[in-house]
Amino acid sequence: MTDSAPLLEVRDIAKHFGNITALQGISTSVNAGEVTCVLGDNGAGKSTFIKTLAGVHQQSEGQYLVEGEEVRFGSPREALSKGIATVYQDLAMAPLMSIWRNFFLGSEPRNAIGMMKTAFMKRTAREEMAKMGIDIRDPEQPVGTLSGGERQSVAIARAVYFGAKVLILDEPTSALGVKQSGVVLKYIIAARDRGLGVIFITHNPHHAYPVGDRFLILNRGRSMGNFAKSDLPRDELVKMMAGGAELDALTHELEGSR
Amino acid sequence: MSDDSANVAVDDSDVVTEEVRIDERVVHVGPIQRMLTRPEVGALLGAIAIWLLFWAVTDKFGTAAATANWLDPAATLGIMSVAVALLMIGGEFDLSSGIMTGATGITLGLIAKEFGDNGLNVFIVVPIVFFLAAVVGWLNAQFVNRTALPSFIVTLGSFFVIKGAVLGYTKRIVDKVLVDDLDETAGYSGMRKIFATEFKETTYGWRDEIFVIGAILGLVILVVGVLELTYIRRATANPTGLLVAVAGVVAGIGGLLGLLNTDGVGTNALFGILGAVGVVAAMAGLGLGRYEPRGDVELAAADADSDGAPLARKRMSTFTLVGVALILLGIALGAIIDSETQDAFLFFFTVQGFRAVAFVGLIVAGVALIFLGARAGGSISAKTRLSLLLFAAVSIAAVAFIVQAMAEGRKFRTEFFTAMLLVATIVVGSAVTEFLARKRTFSDARADRLGRLMVAVGMVMTLLAWAQRTVFTDNIFRIAILWWVLFTIGATFVLLRTRFGNWIQAVGGNFDASRSIGVPAARVKTTLFIVVALAAALVGMCLAFRLNSVQASQGDGQEFFFIIAAVVGGNRLQGGYGSALGAAIGAAIISMVRNGIPLAGWNTNWSFLVLGAFLLGAVLLNNYVREKAEAAR
Ligand SMILES: Nc1ncnc2c1ncn2[C@@H]1O[C@H](COP(=O)(O)OP(=O)(O)O)[C@@H](O)[C@H]1O
Ligand SMILES: [Mg+2]
Fold this sequence. Notes:
The structure holds 2 protein chains of 2 kinds.
Chain A: E1 8-17, E2 20-30, E3 35-40, H1 46-54, E4 61-66, E5 69-70, H2 76-81, E6 84-87, H3 99-103, H4 118-131, H5 148-161, E7 166-170, H6 178-193, E8 197-202, H7 205-211, E9 214-219, E10 222-228, H8 234-241, H9 245-256
Parallel strand pairs in A: 3-8, 3-9, 6-7, 7-8
Antiparallel strand pairs in A: 1-2, 1-4, 4-5, 9-10
Chain B: H1 2-8, H2 12-21, E1 22-27, H3 31-36, H4 41-57, H5 64-89, H6 97-114, H7 122-147, H8 151-174, E2 178-179, H9 188-196, E3 198-200, H10 207-230, H11 239-261, H12 265-290, H13 296-303, H14 308-335, H15 351-376, H16 382-406, H17 410-436, E4 442-444, H18 445-471, E5 476-478, H19 480-497, H20 499-509, H21 511-516, H22 521-547, E6 550-551, H23 559-568, H24 580-599, H25 606-630
Antiparallel strand pairs in B: 1-4, 2-6, 3-5
Helix pairs in contact in B: 4-15, 4-24, 5-19, 5-20, 5-22, 5-23, 5-24, 6-7, 6-8, 6-22, 7-8, 7-22, 9-22, 10-18, 11-12, 12-17, 14-15, 14-16, 16-17, 19-20, 20-22, 23-24, 23-25, 24-25
Magnesium ion is lined by residues 46-47 of chain A.
């Protein structure tokens, strides 16, 4: 393992489902303490891409490297054991269960006689949330009573606590209002500042640009470029996402028809 | 001081706990509020109301004989409802659970009597039956897991399969639809000890003394626990306060001994007053000695609190006064219920029926109003609160005396009278303590732990004291009750304190999510189906060894009562939320209704109406809770 190797890197990845090509020729990377944004319209292949990273799918072609080592994950569990944690859109939480129960779900710490260490769990859940800058006053509160942004933060804090090195977030802001989205962007930055590599999927360039260090843009399963922030002014990103020339034509058409 | 030495000590964990011991950022939720968020609290209040209703309108309800009568079916129903509740929290149903209680019994009988030439020893058969039951549970689970069909439909299928199979092979083997004379089998008496021992305990000399001392000690521990959960601990104890408390305890004990050992109005009144003063002094002394004083500044501040204060005070006063009035009216009405003439066909339309319903209804409405009042008056001044509580206490005491003078039934004249005076005394004590000590608004781990432990110990002690008085009479209590209690405790422990319990709630709450995060969701469901089947086998054995015979149709249709008991106990029909203790209480409610209605001389058809109303009420309540919990802002 070399120091210069990125935390996670893909080279020319392709994914076929039968004769459907969902992804073709995708390359990007994420370093520790950086955010790589994956942008694209609906159906562009964003979810397929991160599912491949997360071990749900296996790539059909190309190389997948974690800390410079080539890997091929058979299951999400394997990816997790390499420190690659994914927060899906549905957040993997039970709404009627308390914050601390959800926080440790699936990895509950136990004492010698098999009881859960409830005091430790409540305390830790609160402390870890506090580190993300969110003040949970009562860890007994059901997750369902939290706001959408707060629930995202529980999922993120959980991934971070369980030793994630790379955090993959699938459209965490798509269901949220402006203010809540801002909150989630802050957690992304908080995770980045704690030294994690973050892969942030979104179709909103205004959410991506402020936090991203690197941008991978997908369109119909193909890469439209993998840019460092310095190479890509904001306007350019917005334009690419809006469909650039296509949108110009559409605007023209709509206005002309009046 | 001691804190410093803990910090100097190298042990890391000690330092950490010292830090979190008093954590002002964590919201402290008071003992009553904390209790109200538990799913079983509705069922508990319902059970108390039902018990009071039948206690008031019948002579027998509440006696040892009647208690044994309703506890018996409650035990078998309760074992099943707890198991079904676990499964329900895990998101599934088992409609074959009812018929399984009969199928296991029949299978036991058939193998034990008809296997080979002379049958088989039941010590071999019982394990076989449990194993077969587990296989049925496992099969149910496999169907549900593999097909992802609703368990409702899958287990409806297995219900018919089992029912048909039992009828078919019973008829074929013994040419009847029942197996009887189980006592002819080898090993019967030994197994009967495990599943159907009857405890017939005769009265013994110290029964009542143990009841009085145990109940009072339990109550004291309970009250002190609540204080510990409510008020701020002082850094060092105030010796004057503790001295007052000790004096109060001595006076209380003196009053009690006096009451127990003397007869006659004059001495009773004297010792009664001594005891009451003792209790109030003990509580006030503890408030002064152990907890931080409230101080005049804070009293003044609360009084002068912003614009909302006068309104809040008015609302709280109104609510509390009306609430107290309703309760007292209810009690007074209840006291003149004449329990001799209970043979009316349409009980609810008689004067007795009206009084009985008013008795419970008014008390419930009154309690609800007082609770609402307490919430409305968040920033109420301590003085107003004190005067309200004192008013409540005085009225309770006054009505107690009226009841004693007017009531016809003995239990109203003595038991109820004593209980009301005790309540009045404790209310006065609480009022004085609240006036003296400062309430806690932050979490204090050590005090919380101690307080919770004391509340639990106090409740258990009081309950045990009462139970021993009920059990040690000339009535029969069966061992199934013990299995029920143990199973409920075990299931509650699993649900609240173990990883598996966490998984049950998660699998029922969000199946896909829990699986994607590494919970073996299918395995959890399999285990739950097997637990239900094993519980059915246990109940089947209890019934078979008690009745000495098993009908093939036994248990048929009972599955709905298991589900009703679980839902009435606060378990969510759609899964993800619930309580094993609640399911046990739900079973007790159903059993009380079924037993109380004939005792009251009502037409038993009412029991279905009452059960239906309970079910609807419980579903509405649970639905409300879920909506509140799921509503994301
Ligand atoms: N399991 C699958 N089998 C076949 N096609 C799939 C599968 N998963 C995704 N696809 C296809 O891949 C394309 C990209 O989908 P997706 O990754 O979900 O896009 P996005 O998340 O960017 O909206 C879609 O056209 C979809 O039909
Ligand atoms: Mg997607």
